[in-house]
Amino acid sequence: MKFHGQHALILAVASSLGANAFIAPTPSTGLVVTSTTSLGVTTKEPPAVASTYSSTEIAYGEESRKYRRTVYTHDDWVKHRAPDRFIRNIKSIFSSGVYKNIANEVLTTVTIATTICAFNMMVGGYTDFNGEQQTGILADSILPILGLPLAPFTLSSPSLGLLLVFRTNTSYQRWDEARKNWGMNINHTRDLVRMASAYYDREGVPESVVKTDLDRVALATWAFVRAMKRHLSPEWEDEEAFQKELYEKLPEKQAEMIIKAKHRPNRALQDLSFAIEALPMNFIRKNEIHRAATIFEDNLGSSERLLSSPVPLFYSRHTARFTFIWLSMLPFGLYGQFSDTWNHFGMIPAIAAISLALFGIEELATQLEEPFTILPMQGFCDKIYNWITEIVSWEPNDNGMFTDEYIAEVKALKDSRQVNGFSKPEETMLEDSAQLNRQSRLRSLLKRF
Predict the structure, then answer these.
(1) Distance of CA 70 to CAs 30, 83, 374, 385, Å?
(2) Do 163 and 356 touch, CB atoms closer than 8 A?
(3) Cβ-contact 409, 446 below 8 angstroms
(4) Residue 14: which H helix or E strand, with range?
């Protein structure tokens, strides 16, 4: 039983920390992206937003979360797997936000261990610096030497290990789901704007109108993800920046309506639906674009569920209580195991290391449980804005993909088909599926050129 108990704790530490134990927090809020496309710019300044919390009222653990919003590049991955990663991360122990956040708990268990050593020296005697045994000042009292058998800790350690592993894995799954939601946002914003630009029926529409329509879709798409980011962020951190960005990028009235809405992402998504409906294109293609927008609603609902529903509180509380009581009592069980060290003082650094590891696992789980304030959502929004505004700036054949001869051939075909349609004899053949597909492709080419 002793063998299994000790190894359960080792497995708990290893499985919960894993490779993430070697990632040092970097002061980054995501990618720094410079926008090169100006759409719907207004010079109106947003109203000032009063901060609900002062910097002195926010715990260090909350302040440090913004330094965990890392976005890795190839250079970061090279550093991440470098051979010196162990030394580098050992050096950063005293600047680690996780360890700073559990400093009080670790200090408590170390204090208990130190107190036990000092008390037992006074009761049972001690060895001085010369190696001679001395009588304690309370040796004649009826007070006993403090200590417990190690068996209760050996028997209970598998339960503690399972609690910590489940707690950490569940929290990581929540973080992973939140990251996947934003990954879907990134993918489908590009997909939606790409379809809007490609499906747009440009025949007879002035280029200025085409640009206005597509810019409106791009801005409405960005407004949704930015409103979602604000919806999932604390007010004291993001409200002022959110209003400023909306007034800078959106028309003034649109920005005001989103800001005043009770549910801002819903309002932004409704604006996007209106912008899609205004596009001149076949209704089937328009429905495909709406399907991409529906995915945004699914991602928003999933994220709201993660934000509003923590891991059941009774589980988190029991794990925290169990961990704290177990580690607070552990010095009583380890006292006799360090009889070979000077006055059993070897127990003190051992307790510090064990407490740091186990309290650290519980702290990791707590930090991961609410994932949005450690995700680089602002970096995601900035990238989405740059990418979708670039997509709508592209025009058909601006890269010369279709040759002049090909365009001339298509235009000649257009003239022979009476500009906008097909001849009557061909219309009688619509029941033939192959002919129908051919006509669809021809119509697409005729409208493109």
Answers:
(1) 6, 21, 8, 19
(2) no
(3) no
(4) helix 2-17
In this structure, what DSSP letter does residue 47 have? P
Measuring CA to CA, how many Å separate 407 from each of 3, 199, 415, 446?
A: 78, 19, 12, 10
The answer to whether the beta carbons of residues 420 and 439 sit under 8 Å apart is: no
pTM of this prediction?
0.75
User: Which residue from 321, 373, 358 is spatially nearest to 168, judged by alpha carbons?
Assistant: 358
Q: How far is CA 107 from CA 76, 120, 208, in A?
A: 34, 20, 67
- Tokens found for residue 385: 């804005």
Helices (H), 200-251: 207-231, 235-249
Partner residues linked to 134 by β-bridges: 126
Four-CA torsion 245, 249, 250, 255, nearest 10 degrees? 10
Place of tokens 């007879």: 204
pLDDT in tens, the chain (449 residues): 333 443 443 334 333 333 333 333 333 333 333 333 334 333 344 444 444 444 444 455 666 676 666 778 888 889 889 999 899 988 888 888 888 889 999 999 999 999 999 999 999 999 999 888 889 898 888 899 999 999 999 999 999 999 999 999 999 999 999 999 999 999 999 999 999 999 999 888 999 999 999 999 999 999 999 999 999 999 988 999 999 999 999 999 999 999 999 999 999 999 999 999 999 999 999 999 999 899 999 999 999 999 999 999 999 999 999 999 999 999 999 999 999 999 999 999 999 999 999 999 999 999 999 999 999 999 999 999 999 999 999 988 788 787 777 777 777 776 666 444 444 444 444 444 445 455 555 555 555 55
Q: What are the structure tokens assigned to 163, written together? A: 């609690």
Nearest CA-CA partner of 108 in 254, 270, 327, 299: 327
Concatenate the DSSP letters of all residues of 342-397 into one string.
Answer: GGGTTHHHHHHHHHHHHHHHHHHHHHHHS-GGGS-HHHHHHHHHHHHHHHHH--TT
Cα separation, 18 vs 232, whole angstroms: 28
Distance in angstroms (rounded) separating the CA atoms of residues 334 and 149: 8
